[in-house]
Amino acid sequence: MSTAGIDTAWDNPLRDPRDRRLPRIAGPSGLVIFGVTGDLSRKKLMPAVYDLANRGLLPPGFSLVGFARRDWEDQDFAQVVHDAVREHARTPFREEVWQQLAEGMRFIPGDFDDDSAFEQLRDAVEELDHSRGTGGNFAFYLSVPPKFFPKVVEQLKKHGLANAPDGSWRRAVIEKPFGHDLSSAQELNAIVHDVFEPDQVFRIDHYLGKETVQNILALRFANQMFEPIWNRSYVDHIQITMAEDIGIGGRAGYYDGIGSARDVIQNHLLQLMALTAMEEPASFDAASLLAEKLKVFKAVKLPEDLGRHTVRAQYAGAWQGGEKVRGYLEEDGIDPSSTTDTYAAVRLNVDNRRWAGVPFYLRTGKRLGRRVTEIAVVFQRAPHSPFDSTATEELGANAIVIRVQPDEGVTVRFGSKVPGTSMEIRDVTMDFAYGESFTESSPEAYERLILDVLLGDANLFPRHQEVEESWRILDPIEEYWARHGRPAQYASGSWGPEEADEMLAQDGRSWRRP
Ligand code: BG6
């Protein structure tokens, strides 16, 4: 096995020489991707593997195996990875890194129920152990529609791939959606756990791989100034927004029948909520994090009147920049009578001592005004003002806004005297922006998550209990919607339906316009 031309993390030109921390580098290992021809694989997984190698965070003999129904040789697969890397990788292309990686690429053509393909996969894994020193350590990434999960895990078991030889490991990486509701999620978990032990299973919620999401816990628990006011005594309400300006693109097959709440609230937004609401974990390890997040999920109570406190809607066509943008029901592949939501807003309560009476408003939508994800902790008004009411007419509520993306950072909003001879107080903001404060670049979420899988670090992966709890929260809302008519409408490019504004107005509040 040659290691020539491979950088270690220490002599890697992409590494800041002032950074004295020990890098987290994966040990001998390989990754098998099922569903290698899909979008996720091309746009995220392959580039992430290359970027990790380029940053010196993969072992020299790292190997990548693709499995799909294509008539490809190893070099055809390598070419597909090459093109994906050239198009989507974040770090510069370096021929020597690419060559080293490409030598460890193998492709297995076949169907998921084709036994001989899985035999070939087993042979390839053994061959890589010998030729590249992967040490029997392999992660199997199921980047395939959930209907194929049972078959693939069953085949891995049948062909002896799920069990690690002594001293090595095998792990399964599963992409969402983890089921469609609580009972399908339980079924899926049972199937997966029949083959893999719970700590061998890594469920991907790519939001947890984002720097700004990990920073929620740093902000709260590495500082003294936020936590004392992070509770019902000071907080009025919390708004969690994930807005996208894109429509469903070519994803009709996946999206129709699923909708925005299942696609995004069940996983990303409930995870953001858990990190915002949870108590300090005993330590920063997977078991302690799980324990605290679970307490939040179990404390979530739905409003009794779901009709008043939830909204779902579909984008309607609109003219944008002189062009007609199609409405959801006119998109290719969408049933014109579909009731699938492309926008959802829900009010949740976390019934515990810290949060009793503080509503958490979660909203998400496609084709909204702008792509933005943020968590806004909105505070109560000062209990008393010594200024006369004209002074504070334009003063809003104080807020701490965690800007998850795209303009990553944290904003604190508070009132300040307007310069001049009279007392007038208006909102101002104090901003922390990643780009200004740090020279280090953020790894893409998938880079971080793939590295963690290879290191066996489960902190950033939702466990099956969390997945099931999130469905427990969402199921009654979906059932209510299914029984109650059609979704509302909103114009593409707007900030959602009027019904969502009314949902907050009845509580005496309004949505932020980020
Ligand atoms: C995915 C959803 O999980 O997240 C997509 O399935 C959505 O519908 C995407 O577009 C958004 O991810 P990001 O990282 O671009 O905010």
From TrEMBL:
- The Glucose-6-phosphate dehydrogenase NAD-binding domain sits at 32-215
Does this entry carry the keyword Transmembrane helix? no
List, alphabetically, the Pfam families matched.
G6PD_C (PF02781), G6PD_N (PF00479)
Q: Where is this region: Disordered?
A: 1-22, 490-514
Q: Where is the composition biased (Basic and acidic residues)?
A: 13-22
State its Enzyme Commission number(s). Answer: 1.1.1.49
Q: Does the keyword Membrane apply?
A: no
Binding-site list for NADP(+) = 69, 111-112, 176
Active site: residue positions:
268
Pathways involved: Carbohydrate degradation; pentose phosphate pathway; D-ribulose 5-phosphate from D-glucose 6-phosphate (oxidative stage): step 1/3
Catalytic function, reaction form: D-glucose 6-phosphate + NADP(+) = 6-phospho-D-glucono-1,5-lactone + NADPH + H(+)
Q: Any idea where the Glucose-6-phosphate dehydrogenase C-terminal domain is?
A: 217-512
- Which residues are involved in binding substrate? 206, 210, 244, 263, 366
Highest taxon in the source lineage: Bacteria
SUPFAM superfamilies reported in the protein's UniProt record = Glyceraldehyde-3-phosphate dehydrogenase-like, C-terminal domain (SSF55347), NAD(P)-binding Rossmann-fold domains (SSF51735)
Q: Which UniProt keywords apply?
A: Carbohydrate metabolism, Glucose metabolism, NADP, Oxidoreductase
Q: What does this protein do?
A: Catalyzes the oxidation of glucose 6-phosphate to 6-phosphogluconolactone.
Q: Which family does it belong to?
A: Belongs to the glucose-6-phosphate dehydrogenase family.
What HAMAP family is this protein classified in? G6PD
NCBIfam families per UniProt: PRK12853.1-3 (NF009492), zwf (TIGR00871)
Which named protein is this? Glucose-6-phosphate 1-dehydrogenase
> Taxonomic classification, please?
Bacteria, Bacillati, Actinomycetota, Actinomycetes, Kitasatosporales
